[in-house]
Specification:
With 282 residues, the chain is α+β, with helices and mostly antiparallel strands. The chain contains seven helices and 17 strands.
Length: 282
């Protein structure tokens, strides 16, 4: 019988206890962790001390690693993206509600983020539960969204003319803008059926969703803004306080996240591995 504990958060997510992922994990224990991830879409581990090699090994237990096109990799570890903010930099990466890789035809399954260097205070990450957000929609809105598709793009974030590129100190931490400019926009259902949990998920996000297919720009923008404001309500959100040894593993199909930028003048370094996903269906 597994000794691993799963403690649900007040909002989305669950904390996993009694496990050291620097050591081999039995199939029985891994099954408990995997089920918690499927149930909650977001898991946290505390007090972990792992090397980059162990980070990669843990990630590969879940599936194939997606080597990020746009983030600077950790030296010697192309599988690991570095998410860094230096004391003299004003803008952080991920400082707005979004989900990773929705601009891909097969969006990434999840991201495993490890704290490497933390500021004395600040730098928390917010997570929003998009299954709960969908469930809380009124019936009329659910009917309106049923069958709709949305267009997702990376160009305005990572491309050569993006906001990040124009006078932002983020651009030195990103690369390969040509890949973003060459990447075709993609279309996904606005309401997806989650491939693990079977739950209905509201699948749009403010960073990468650029419009509703078949709608006027004005109507599309109004509907999307209404959905964004709905989904970021406190009742759907968990705020995660990072500490040395903290790891967050979120499902990009089931959650949004938002890295708070409240630690000006301090350094924060995180290591992220992203896992390949699959095509999404309504």
């Amino acid at each position: 019988m597994s000794s691993i504990t799963v403690t649900p958060c007040k909002g989305p997510g669950a904390e996993i206890g009694n496990v050291d992922i620097s050591q081999p994990i039995s199939d029985e224990d891994f099954a408990v962790i995997r089920q918690a991830f499927a149930d909650h879409g977001l898991i946290f581990l505390r007090d972990q001390t792992i090397t980059p090699e162990q980070h990669i090994e843990f990630a590969e237990r879940w599936g194939d690693i997606n080597v990020n096109r746009f983030f600077t990799p950790v030296d010697g570890y192309p599988q690991i993206a570095e998410v860094r903010k230096e004391p003299d930099q004003a803008t952080n990466i991920g400082g707005g509600w979004h989900t990773d890789h929705s601009y891909d035809a097969e969006p990434a399954m999840g991201s495993i983020l490890v704290a490497r260097e933390l500021p004395p205070k600040g730098g928390d990450t917010m997570f929003a539960d998009m299954a709960a957000a969908y469930e809380a929609l009124d019936d009329e809105t659910k009917q309106l969204l049923d069958g709709l598709e949305a267009v997702h793009s990376s160009k305005h974030i990572f491309g050569g003319q993006s906001a990040y590129k124009e006078g932002s100190d983020v651009n030195e931490r990103l690369h390969n803008a040509d890949a973003a400019d060459a990447l075709d926009d993609v279309v996904h259902p606005v309401i997806i059926t989650h491939p693990l949990s079977g739950k209905k998920i509201l699948y749009v996000n403010a960073a990468f969703t650029i419009g509703m297919k078949g709608m006027s720009q004005e109507d599309s923008a109004a509907l999307l803004m209404r959905l964004y404001m709905h989904a970021q309500q406190d009742q759907f959100v968990t705020r995660f306080e990072w500490k040395p040894g903290s790891i967050a593993f979120w499902d990009n199909r089931a959650t949004w996240h938002y890295a708070l930028n409240d630690y000006q003048g301090e350094r924060r370094v995180m290591h992220r591995i992203t896992l390949e996903g699959c095509a999404l269906a309504a």
